[in-house]
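Could you help me review a protein record that somebody else here produced? My question to you is simply how this chain folds and whether the tokens agree. Thanks in advance; the entry in question is below:
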Amino acid sequence: MEELIQITRQLWPSMCPEFEDTLRNSIVREIIPKKQLVLKEGQTAHHMYFVEQGCLRGYYLREGNEINSWFMKEGDFVISIISFYTQMPTEEMIETLEDCVLWSISYDQLNELYFQYPEFNQVGRLLTERYYVLSEQRTQNLRKKTADERYRHLVTSFPDISNRVPLKFIASYLGISFETLSRLRAKKW
């Protein structure tokens, strides 16, 4: 929880102690084993998570194939964006890839914090901007970069990914075949 509080302090340095206490009382620590679905297709995402420990993936199904859309690890926020903000059922699934320690807050609790502490809206806006930029970068990488460039970018931003995420998931995320990923990994830069 302390890392989450620290991130909030960095984004909102003049945070009042009351807010910190309210946040501490609003979030719930969850320990979720490896290979568990945190969110299933057809469910509505009622919670946002902060990753204290572990790694997760977001994916959806297309013609029976799993298409990986993101990986998150320690220090990241995990959310099914469309479902959480619209409070509608999702097509996305969220799965733990490792044993995870997560801190969760409900949609209603988060909105209550925004209402009670209007300055906290700044934190929400900054985090939304951060993750929107990451999403746009991924979209541009898929459209503009070669498979080799996409792989280099991924291992630069997440150096231990191949030790934490199955290679078939990485290949899917990069939009390439498992064989192509194997060739890229064999190259020396």
Q: What stands out?
A: The first strand starts at residue 28 and ends at 32. The mean pLDDT is 94.
